[in-house]
Design goal:
heterotrimer; A alpha+beta; B alpha+beta; C mainly beta; B: alpha+beta; Immunoglobulin-like; 2 domains; five-stranded antiparallel beta sheet; four-stranded antiparallel beta sheet; 5 helices; elongated; disordered N terminus; C: mainly beta; five-stranded mixed beta sheet; 1 helix; 13 strands; 14% helix
Chain lengths: 218, 241, 193
C-alpha cells in the first residue's frame, strides 16, 4: 500500500480523529432517528377531498372552479367530424384563474394535464389523455385554450366521446394538484401532478349558447 | 421523472477500487534506490508526503516504478477528462456551425449554367425595373425607396424531390432579397413561384421563368441564389454581370 | 496537512463552480446582459431584427381585421393592449415568432400575443420594414409598467445569449378605449416606421 493513499481506513481515521468530529458524525447519524421520533416528513400518499360544484379549488398553478357539464354535437362540428370514432363532445364548464407568471395552455400536457379529468366508463373518451382536446370561452365561443396570468375566465373544456348515452346525469371528475418542483436532471422547474386530489360531482347543463354552431347548408 | 438516481455512498466500491486497479508491487524487479536520490528530485519528493494517513511519515520506499505508473494514469485521466469536456461543449460547433459553414455554392460552367443535384439553372437576366415599373395586370407598385427587379431563370430538372425553389438577389452586404415576397403575386408575365421540379405533362411552366423581386433602391445585387429544402446540401449561386 | 486542505478546497471549488454554472444557465440566459432597452418611437436592436414600436393603446374590445365578414368586437376577461409596431431584419426574410413576443408586467407576469385575433407576427425582409398590430390580453392590474419583450430566439452563433429588445409602453391605466380596430400589415417605404 502506497503511503498517503486514500482508503476507507484512512478516511474513517480522519473523520473519527478527534472528539468534536465524532460528535458531529454521531449527530448526523441521529438525524433520521430524531425526525422519525418527531413524526417524520409526512405521508407520501396524496390526500383526497370532496368538493361541491361551484367552489374554487386551488390546484397550485391555477385556481379552477368546476361548474357543470354538457354533452352536445352542435359545437365545433368540423373538428368532431374529423375525429375518428367521435360521436359528441363532452364539455365541462370551468372558471380558471392562472396564478403563475406565464400563460398556461389548458389543452396540452403540462400544468393543466390533470387539472380536471372526467371519470367515464373505459373507452368513452376517444383519447386516453386526461387533458381536454379543445377549450372555448363560454362568453363568446372564441378560443379559450390559454389561461393568462391573473385573468379569470370561464371556458368549456371539450373532450370527444364515442357514446353520448354512456355519460351519466351526474359526472364524477377528479382534479389533481400540481406541484412546482425542481428537476435537477433537466435543471429547470416544472409542474408535476402529484399533489392532493379533489373529487367533484358535476350536474348536467345545456350547451352554452355562444358555443352553438348552426348546421351548415351544403 | 427527472429525479436523479439515488446515489448511495459506497465507500468500499468507490475508494478501494483505484488501488486494486493499480499494478501489484513487484519487489524483485525493483532495485533499492538510495534515499538521498529520492529526496534530490523535487517533484516526486513532494508526492511521497502522507496525505490522509495519521501515522508518522513512511520511510521513502523504493517504489519509483509504481509511483510513475500512478502519475501516468493521472495524466491519462486528466487528458481523457479534458478531451471529453471539449467534445461535449463543442457539440453545437461540430454539428451545426461547421456543417453550415461548409455549405458552398456549386461550380458554374463556362456557359453560365450551374448543375446541382439534378437541377440545371442559368441566369437569363436580372434587371432593375426601377421605382415605377409598368407591371401589366396589377396596380401594385413598389413602396417609396424601393425598386422592382425582374429575374429570369432557365431551369431544367431531373430531381423528383424538388418542386419549388427559393430565389434571392444577394447584395455585397449579404442581404437576401427573396423573389415573390413583399410583391403582388399575380403580375402578368411573372411566375408566382420558381418551379424547379420535373415538369408534369399538363404543366404550363415556361422554359424561362420570370420572377419579381422587391429590392431597396440603394442595394446593388451581385448574385442570384437558388436554394431549396430539397437539396441535401449546398446551393446554386449565379453572378450578375 | 497542506495537501489535505488543497484536496478539500478543490472539491469545494468544483461544487461551487457547478452550482454557479447551473444558476447562470437557468437564471441569466437568455435574459442576461444582452437586452437592449428602447422606447416608443425609437428603433431598438434585437439582432437580426430592428424593432420600432409606434403606438400602444388599451381597449375593452378589438375589431379583428381583414376578414371577409367583419365579426362583432372581440371582448376579453382582462384588458386588450394593442401594440402597433414595425420591424425589419439585417440579412434575410424572417418572421417574428409568437413565442418570443410577450408583454411583461412590472411584477414579472408574461402575456403572449393573443391567439384570438389571428395575427401573431409577420414576415419582414432585410431593410424591408413591415408594420402591423399585435393584440395582447393582459390582467387589468398589469396595465401600468408593461414592457414589450421582442426576443428573436434565434441562435445564430450557437448556444449563447442572443440580443432581445425591451420597450416600455407607458400605458395610462385610466385611458382604456372602448374598441380598437386592428389594421392590416403593411410594407413600408424607405425611412417609414
Amino acid at each position: 500500500m502506497e503511503a498517503g493513499a486514500i482508503t476507507v481506513r484512512t478516511v474513517l481515521a480522519l473523520l473519527l480523529a478527534t472528539w468534536p468530529r465524532r460528535l458531529v458524525l454521531g449527530g448526523l447519524l441521529l438525524v433520521p432517528v430524531v425526525v422519525g421520533a418527531l413524526g417524520g416528513f409526512g405521508t407520501a400518499e396524496p390526500r383526497t377531498f370532496d368538493v361541491a360544484p361551484g367552489q374554487d379549488v386551488d390546484l397550485g398553478p391555477m385556481v379552477v372552479r368546476p361548474i357543470a357539464f354538457f354533452v352536445s354535437d352542435e359545437t365545433q362540428r368540423t373538428t368532431l367530424e374529423i375525429t375518428d370514432g367521435a360521436e359528441a363532445w363532452l364539455g365541462v364548464v370551468v372558471e380558471v384563474e392562472n396564478h403563475t407568471e406565464e400563460a398556461i395552455t389548458l389543452t396540452f400536457p403540462g400544468p393543466a394535464s390533470d387539472a380536471l379529468a372526467p371519470q367515464l366508463p373505459a373507452g368513452t373518451l376517444v383519447t386516453g389523455a386526461s387533458v381536454a382536446k379543445e377549450a372555448y370561452r363560454v362568453d363568446d365561443g372564441t378560443m379559450g385554450s390559454v389561461a393568462l396570468p391573473g385573468v379569470r375566465t370561464q371556458v368549456a373544456l371539450l373532450w370527444p366521446i364515442t357514446d353520448a348515452d354512456a355519460v351519466p346525469d351526474v359526472l364524477p371528475a377528479s382534479m389533481t394538484e400540481s406541484l412546482w418542483t425542481f428537476g435537477p436532471m433537466s435543471n429547470e422547474h416544472q409542474w408535476m401532478s402529484l399533489g392532493d386530489v379533489w373529487h367533484v360531482e358535476l350536474p348536467r347543463t345545456e350547451l352554452p349558447p355562444a358555443l352553438f354552431e348552426p348546421e351548415e347548408d351544403l | 421523472m427527472s429525479e436523479p438516481p439515488q446515489e448511495q455512498p459506497r465507500p468500499e466500491a468507490e475508494i478501494d477500487t483505484p488501488p486494486r486497479g493499480l499494478p501489484q508491487p513487484e519487489p524483485a524487479a525493483q532495485p533499492p534506490v538510495p534515499a538521498a536520490d529520492s529526496g534530490a528530485a523535487p517533484g516526486p519528493g513532494a508526492g511521497a508526503a502522507p496525505v490522509w494517513g495519521a501515522g508518522p511519515p513512511a520511510p521513502p520506499t523504493p517504489q519509483r516504478r509504481r509511483a510513475s505508473t500512478v502519475h501516468v494514469l493521472q495524466v491519462i485521466a486528466l487528458v481523457v477528462g479534458l478531451v471529453g469536456t471539449g467534445w461535449i461543449s463543442s457539440e453545437h460547433f461540430r454539428t451545426v456551425w461547421l456543417g453550415s459553414e461548409r455549405d458552398e455554392p456549386v461550380a458554374v460552367d463556362g456557359a453560365g449554367a450551374a448543375t446541382h443535384e439534378g437541377l440545371t439553372v442559368s441566369l437569363v437576366e436580372a434587371t432593375d425595373l426601377g421605382a415605377t415599373p409598368s407591371l401589366p395586370g396589377t396596380d401594385w407598385q413598389p413602396p417609396s425607396g424601393f425598386h422592382a427587379w425582374r429575374v429570369v431563370l432557365d431551369a431544367e430538372s431531373t430531381n423528383p424531390d424538388l418542386f419549388a425553389c427559393d430565389v434571392a438577389l444577394v447584395d455585397g452586404g449579404g442581404r437576401h432579397f427573396v423573389a415573390n415576397l413583399f410583391v403582388d403575386s399575380f403580375v402578368d408575365g411573372f411566375e408566382w413561384t420558381f418551379s424547379c421540379g420535373v415538369p408534369e405533362p399538363d404543366d404550363d411552366v415556361p422554359a424561362q421563368q420570370a420572377l419579381l423581386v422587391l429590392v431597396p433602391a440603394d442595394a446593388e445585387p451581385t448574385a442570384v441564389e437558388i436554394t431549396s429544402t430539397g437539396f441535401s446540401s449546398g446551393y446554386i449561386e449565379l453572378e450578375i454581370d | 496537512m497542506r495537501r489535505r486542505w488543497m484536496i478539500v478546497g478543490l472539491a469545494a471549488l468544483a461544487v461551487v463552480l457547478g452550482i454557479a454554472t447551473n444558476v447562470a444557465d437557468a437564471r441569466l440566459l437568455p435574459y442576461g446582459p444582452t437586452s437592449s432597452t428602447g422606447a416608443i418611437g425609437e428603433d431598438a436592436g434585437a439582432y437580426p431584427f430592428t424593432v420600432h414600436v409606434s403606438q400602444a393603446q388599451a381597449a375593452h374590445t378589438v375589431l379583428v381585421c381583414c376578414r371577409f365578414e367583419t365579426p362583432p368586437p372581440t371582448g376579453t376577461d382582462g384588458v386588450w393592449v394593442v401594440v402597433t409596431l414595425s420591424y425589419a431584419t439585417a440579412d434575410r426574410p424572417r418572421g417574428a415568432s409568437g413565442t418570443g413576443l410577450v408583454l411583461r408586467s412590472a411584477d414579472g407576469r408574461e402575456f403572449p400575443v393573443s391567439n384570438r385575433t389571428g395575427s401573431g407576427g409577420w414576415l419582414a425582409g432585410p431593410d424591408i420594414w413591415v408594420r402591423g398590430d399585435l393584440a395582447f390580453e393582459v390582467a387589468p392590474d398589469a396595465l401600468e409598467g408593461l414592457t414589450l419583450v421582442f426576443d428573436p430566439g434565434i441562435q445564430l452563433y450557437g448556444p449563447m445569449p442572443t440580443q432581445y429588445a425591451r420597450i416600455p409602453l407607458d400605458l395610462d391605466p385610466g385611458a382604456v378605449l372602448d374598441v380598437i380596430e386592428l389594421s392590416e400589415e403593411q410594407i413600408l417605404g424607405a425611412g417609414e416606421r
